Amino acid sequence: MTIEIADLTRRFDRTEVLRGINLAIAEGELVALLGPSGSGKTTLLKIIAGLDWPDTGSLTVNGQDWLAKRAQDRRAGFVFQHYALFPHMKVRDNIAFGLTVLPRRDRPSAAAIRARVDELMRFLQISALADRFPAELSGGQRQRVALGRAMAISPAVLLLDEPFGALDALVRRDLRRWLRDVLETSKTTSIFVTHDQEEAFELADRVVIMGAGRIEQIGRPDEIYDHPATPFVARFLGLSVELPVRLRAGRVEAPGLDATALPRRAMADGPAMLFARPADLAPVPAQDGPLRVAAISSTGALLHVQLTDDGGLAVETEVPRRRGLHLSLGQRVTLRVEAGQVFRDGAPAETPAETPAADSRPVPLRYEHSSKESLR
Amino acid sequence: MNVTAITPQDSARAALSHDIAMRRLLIGAALALTALLVVVPLAYIFYRAFAAGWQVFAANITEPNTLHAIGLTALVAAIAVPVNIVFGLCAAWVIARFRFAGRRLLLTLIEIPFSISPIIAGICYLLLYGRQGLLGPFLMAHDIRILFALPGIVMVTMFVTAPFVVREVLPLMQAQGSEQEQAALTLGASGWQVFRLVSLPNIRWALVYGAVLCTARAVGEFGGVSVVSGSIRGQTNTLPLQIELLFNDLNMVGAFAASSVLTLIAVIALVVKSLLETRRG
Predict the structure, then answer these.
(1) Which residues of A touch B189 (CB under 8 A)?
(2) Domain that holds residue A244
(3) Please, which pLDDT band fits residue B1 given cuts at 50, 70 and 90?
(4) Nearest partner of B209 among B256, B275, B121, judged by Cα
(5) Number of domains in chain A
(6) Looking at the structure, do residues A171 and A279 belong to the same domain, yes or no?
(7) Same domain for A42 and A92?
(8) Which residue of chain B is at minimal alpha-carbon distance from A73?
(9) What Rg value do the Cα atoms of chain B yield, rounded?
C-alpha cells in the first residue's frame, strides 16, 4: 500500500493549517508524524482518513485517488486518542462493528465474524475482555480494543492519533512495546501522530517532523537525531543551546570552544550558529577559559551546570554527576562540544558534507581568546 | 484570654442550633406549601371524580363528547410528539455537529415557545391562517381548513412543545462530541448506520425523557389550542377544553371525571420521567 501525498494544503478560516505537504509512504512502513501541537499533524491524519478535506493537493493510495472516496469507502483504520469506543456495545461487538456494517453481499456470516473477532482478540491479547463494556476497562485496555476495532476491517492503512496521549507513563511504555510488536507482525502500513519524541523514535521506521503546517524533515530516527535539518528540528529535538560561532574551512570555531569532535561541513566561511544538546557540552576547567561556572544543581544522576561569559552569554550544560565533581562555582572553563549541528543564521539547513563516521581525522581547533565577542 | 476563647465557641454553638431550627422551618414550609398547592388539589380531583360513585364516573367518562375529546387529545399527541421528536433530533444534530451562520439564532428561536404565552401562538395562527388572515384567501380558494380543525390544533401543539426534545438531546450530543460517529464512518458505516447504531443509542434515554415531557405538555395544552380549535363539542374539543366546557356547564362530576383522566396521564408521565432519571443517573 503506497501512499502518496502531494502539495496538500488546508486552511481553517484564516489559519493555514497545512501549507503544502509532500510525503510518500511505502507498503508496510510505520511512520510517525512528530511535531508540537498546532503543527497540523492531526489534520493531515484526518485528511488521510477522510474525516477532513484539503483545499488543494492530492492523496493517492495504491494509484487510487482517495480524495474522490468517502471515509466509508477508504478502509482506513483510525484510532483516536480518547478511544471513541461505542459505550453501549461489548468489546466483542465494538471490534466486530466494521464487519457487521458491511452490506449484506460483502458481509461474512455471523460465525465467520465471530471467528475473526476471536482471532484478533487473541492476537491482541484481549480475549479476556470480550464480554465487558468499555466503561469497565482501563485506559490501556480501551486503546487495545480501539486498535482491534480498527484492525478488524483489514485496513489499507492504520492511522493512530496520539494513541498513548491519554495514558499514564507506565502504561504508555508497555503499550508502546505491545503496539510495535503488533504492527511488526501484522505488517500494516501505519501512520501515527505524536508530540512525544521518544515515542516517535522508538516506534517508527521513519519520522516526519512537522512545524507550522510544513514538513521540516523526513528521515530514519537516528538520521534525524544526529542531523537535524533545520533550526526548528534542532530546537524541537532538544538542541537547546545556541552558540554563535565562525566557520573556517568547514570547521567550527569560537573562543574557548573545543569543536574537534564535530565533522567538517561543506559550508562557506563566515558566521554561523551552533546548536547542541546540553548533554553534548562538557565544561573543561581552564585558567584562562572565557566562561565561568555560574550555577550547579543536581538531579541525582546529572549535574546541570550553568555557564556564563563576561558578555552575558548563558550556556546550559549537563554532566554526569561523578564526572562533574571537580567543578565549582566561579571556576573558569572552556567548552568541549561532543555533537551539534551548524546552521547559517536562520537559513535553510545544508546537509553535512560527511557523516561523523567518515570523518576520522581530528583537526585541532584554534583558540581565539582575544575575540570574546564572537562567542555571543 | 478564657473569656475570648469561650465566647466564639458559645456563639458558634448558638449559631449552629439556630441553623438547625431554621433548616427545619424551611423544610416544613416547603412541605406545607407543596401539600397546599399541589398534593391536596390533585387528590381532591380524584375525590370529587369518584364522590358520586364509580358508575357515575364511568357514565361521565363515556359521555360521547368527553370520549371524543379524549380521542382527539390522544390523536393530537400521537401526531405532534413524533413530529417533534424528528424535528428535535434534526435540530440538535445540526446545532451540535456544525458551525454555521445563524446557529445561535436557531437555538434562540427553538426556545421561544418556552418564554411566549401559548395564547400568543394561537392568535398568531389565527392572524395567519384565519379567514381574514394573511393566508386566509389562499386556503379558502383551495378548500384547506386549518383553523377550527385538526391541523390548527396539531400545529399549535407542536409550536408549544417544540423545545422539549432539543433541550434534552442537545447538551448530551455536545458533551459526547462526534468522535464515535467519525470512528463509525472510518469503519465503513453508512450515514444511516451511524445514526442507528452509534448516535441514537447514545442519546436514547435523553430522547425518551424529552418525548415524555413533550407528551405531557401536548396533552395538557390549553391556551393556544383554545384560540384555534373553536371548541366545537364532539369535533374540535380537546380534553382540557372539554373540561372547561363541562365546568362552565356546572357539570362538576363530569369536569372532575375528565380532569382525573388528564391528571392520570400527567402522573404516569411523571413516574416514567423519574424512572428514566434514575436510569440515566
Answers:
(1) 72, 97-98, 101
(2) 239-375
(3) very low
(4) B275
(5) 2
(6) no
(7) yes
(8) B188
(9) 25
Pairwise CB contact (< 8 Å): B185 & A77: no
Coil vs helix vs strand at A52: coil
pLDDT at site B169 = 93
The answer, for A53 touching chain B at a CB cutoff of 8 Å, is: no
pLDDT value, residue B173:
92
Give residue-wise pLDDT tens across range B23-65: 999 999 999 999 999 899 989 988 888 888 889 889 988 889 9
Interchain proximity A86–B180, CB inside 8 Å: yes
pLDDT digits (tens, 9 = 90+) for B119-163: 998 999 889 988 888 888 888 888 888 888 899 999 999 999 999
Do A204 and A303 belong to one domain?
A: no
- Examine residue A232 and state whether it is found in any structural domain, yes or no: no
CB of A346 within 8 Å of a chain B CB? The answer is: no
Query: Do A222 and A120 reside in the same domain of the chain?
Result: yes
CB hemisphere CA count around A322 (13 angstroms): 0
Whether residue A164 contacts residue A143, with contact meaning beta carbons closer than 8 Å, is answered with yes
Check residue B135 and give its pLDDT: 87
The pTM for the full model equals: 0.77
Residue A376 predicted with pLDDT over 50: no
Chain A nearest CA to B192, separation (Å): 11
Backbone angles phi, psi at A87, to 5 degrees: -70, -20
Question: Is A284 among the domain residues?
Answer: yes
Cβ separation A49–B201 shorter than 8 A = no
Q: Which residues contact B106 (CB under 8 A, 6 or more apart)?
A: B91, B94, B95
pLDDT at res. A182: 87
